[in-house]
Specification:
Elements lengths: L2 H6 L12 H18 L1 H4 L5 H5 L23 H29 L4 H23 L2 E2 L5 E2 L7 E3 L1 H16 L5 E3 L5 E3 L3 H21 L4 H7 L2 H24 L32 H20 L2 H5 L1 H15 L6 H5 L20 H25 L7 H23 L5 E3 L3 H8 L4 H16 L1 H8 L3 H23 L6 H19 L16 H15 L1 H15 L6 H25 L1
Antiparallel strand pairs: 1-2, 3-6, 4-5
Helix pairs in contact: 5-6, 5-7, 5-18, 6-16, 6-18, 6-19, 7-10, 7-22, 8-15, 8-16, 10-15, 10-20, 10-21, 10-23, 11-13, 11-20, 13-20, 15-16, 15-17, 15-22, 21-23
Subcellular location: Membrane
GO molecular function: xanthine transmembrane transporter activity
Family: Belongs to the nucleobase:cation symporter-2 (NCS2) (TC 2.A.40) family.
Amino acid sequence: MSPDILTTSQPKPIAQPEVSSRGAALKERASRFAKKFTTRDGWLGDYDYGWLCLPTLPYAKQKRAPPFYALDQDLPLILAISSGFQHSLAMLAGLITPPIIFASALSLDDELSAYMISASLIGCGILSLVQMSRIPLFGGYYLGTGLITVVGTSFATLSTANAIFDAMYSDGTCSSTTAADGTVTRLACPDAYGKVLGTSLICSFLEIFMSFIPARRLKRIFPPIVTGTVIVMIGASLIGDSGIPNWGGGANDCMSRPTSGFFQLCPNITAPRPLPWGSAEFIGLGFLSFATIMLTELFGSPFLKNISIVVGLAVGCIVSGAAGYIDGSSITTAPAITFLWVHTFKIGVYPPAILPMLAVYVSVAMEAIGDITASAEVSRVAVDGLEFDSRIQGGVLSDGIGGFISALFTVTPLSIFAQNNGVIAITRCANRSAGRWCCFFLILFGVLGKISGVFLAIPNPVLGGVTTFLFASVATSGIRVLAYNTFTRRDRFVLAAALSFGFGDLLVPTIFEHLFDGVDNPNKGLQGLFDSITIILSTPFLAAGIMAVVLNLTLPQEFDEHEGEHDDDDDDAELAEVESQKHKSG
């Protein structure tokens, strides 16, 4: 028998079964964990922290930026913590402003107001973790975006809720008193907030349903001409409803400068240093905070630029505290530790608020599409294709479910915050570890109840100077979205028609209040419908958004002559190339 035959006739070795990899995986994970916490590289890495923290001089030669950290790249611990801290501070003003405004509009006491701030911080921290995840569901659907897309109280809700509260005080759902000089004072009405929460809870199913509509179709229904218009009007209306009034001393009844009563001076006559609305002292305090933001952007380090809003608040509070404008009672009454459901609100449904709140959730979905696109772009991941569409689907679904859960958390509807994209761009860190640390800090800020008391003690002019800039940034984001349009004649027509309603509402907010006065003795259901329509028409971004959507869906698309010329040129060039190839082959 030949050696070849012997060789080929040998049985092949039997593959040994692999040892379970679970133990090896745990061992490897423990090794990585130990390396992360016991080595300099695990703590610091090779990131240039000097670039992040050193101030910059205008027109000076800029240092080379540090490396970019992608979504799931290994991230040094200190960088993850510092980036997460920057994200949390960048969100802070946007998270504390809505509950402060809600509490002021409903005349709630300091204890309840401080709780609302804490609940906002805790709820947004928890639901941001969900939004940043990318949990596979059935049929190829996802929950969350898988990006650093943190969420906060929607400014669209803020604008709409003010109109809803006005309607509640007008129809007697909430009580008010009228002084001898005609000054109307709103009494505390926590049940109004509970009705907004309950209405929000049932309306959240609309956005959940919208998340299962293909992303391409959603973008066709809500193109930049629609979303940009809505965002511009949200920012502009908030400047007029809250930013500038607070800058002048307060957005309450003291704005009318009554000659007597509790609100004769701002914020009221019991404040440490009350003054008439629009006093030079108030304007100066607000401008100090506003100017601090400008100077921080001019001279601050990248770290400070990311938190310029907080820097403006801090400087304004230091000066106003030294001048005696701060009332520390809210800090004294705030608990050291708090959490969700320490205070609760009686959940109910306010029928006239259903249609406006449905429109709010449509607006939140529109915001989500634009903000997710921006987050994907700055995170250097694909902004088209199936993966990107699934990120939009997961983000809108998370927003919808978040709206349902946030109502149970005693927080109004949430939306993705766009300002955190700036933090990603400056720090060059899109890693989700930084986002998780951001959520940790938000929850920590909320649990420490005294922090909410500090926020509540911020004087109105300081808050107004900062939020005016913040709301103007929202409007600027809308202008940026509008810039994506080619501005054909059709686009200009849609925008002009939408802004006619939006700016009209903004400049003359009472125009639709008497729309149905001619209807005699309407029944309760019909009156509720009238109130819903009035709230929608009296809210600038809702009126403008509805007009933009209707016109965008009904007006036919225009053929761009310049685009056609370019296409003809391309066709001619292609034809010439084909003819040239024929001649060469001939």
